[in-house]
Amino acid sequence: MPFESPPDLKHDVAVLAAVAARHCRLPHPDVVAECTGPVFPTIRDQRKRLEVDESAGLLLDDNVTPRWALFWAHGMAQTHHPKGWTIAHVWAAPKDRDAYTHLANLCLMPECLGSLSDKLGPLCPYLQYHAFQVYGWHPASADPPPEPEGFADIRWTYFDAYASPLGFVKDRVMTLNNQRVVKLRPLMGFIDE
What we know:
Blueprint: H1 13-23, H2 29-34, E1 42-44, E2 52-53, E3 58-61, H3 64-72, E4 85-89, E5 106-110, H4 124-135, H5 165-175, H6 179-187
Parallel strand pairs: 1-3
Antiparallel strand pairs: 2-3, 4-5
């Protein structure tokens, strides 16, 4: 039996978004406000990961720094990927240094819900509008998103606020001594002591 087109979810999208929002963790609005731009000078380049583009002042990354940005800005010291969770980008802008590790562009979600935000999945318009409405942010390369149907009924779940997010990030970058942070320090203007 040949595969048919996937089902049209338009009547259930708001319900799916509401369920997903209860289980996802978004950056706290106060933390996003404190971190006014990208947390790290990085973009995604899986093939050239850990290379430094000196002319652009960027570290080429493999999705580690978005995870660090999200956790460290909320005062969590872990470096590892949490089992059963995925870090999702709200906008697919992996080569945009201003978006790649911007907290407004990041979300922690259960792996089983991850496909809802992949490849313009049904959760994308809700996450994008949330970032615009709550954080006042969208990538410079994208227009402000329209409000999706049912958005007002969604209750979002946030990480706890952290009083000094950039201080914690700097402390982690200066304390750790792995290859990635050694390359990040000079790009972030930090000097080894």
